[in-house]
Amino acid sequence: GTVFVTIEDEYGDVQIILWGDVFARYSRELDSQVIEVNGTVSKWDGTTNVIVTSLRAIRVGVRMPRAHDWH
């Protein structure tokens, strides 16, 4: 199925959309604290999203603040 993920930094947040095949390929990268997202910006019905084509985990050498878990 389709997976919707909200990512954020100190400037704001954005929703990324992963189709099933893309999620299956990159699901492990979503566990990383910092990721690089590649995709296409989609504006529809007043919302802006990124349709993901690839993800890459980025390793950082410092401790990152804890993520917000809204669920």
A few lines on this structure:
This protein is mainly β. The protein has 1 helix and 4 strands; from the N terminus they run ββαββ.
Account of the protein in words:
The chain has one helix spanning 20-26, and strands at 3-9, 12-18, 35-44, 47-57. The chain is mainly beta and 71 residues long. The protein has one domain (3-57). The chain has a 4-stranded mixed β-sheet with strand order 1-2-4-3. The protein is globular and about 35 Å long. The mean pLDDT is 89.
Mean pLDDT: 89
Query: Helical proportion?
Result: under 10%
Strand order of the largest sheet: 1-2-4-3
Q: What is the number of E strands? A: 4
- Shape descriptor reads globular
Number of helices, where a helix is a run of at least 4 consecutive DSSP H or I residues: 1
Terminus-to-terminus distance: 19 Å
The overall number of domains is 1
The helix-strand sequence is: EEHEE
Give the helix/strand class: mainly beta
The whole-angstrom Rg is 13 Å
**Poorly predicted residue ranges:** none
User: How much strand content do the residues show?
Assistant: over 45%
Biggest β-sheet description = 4 strands, mixed
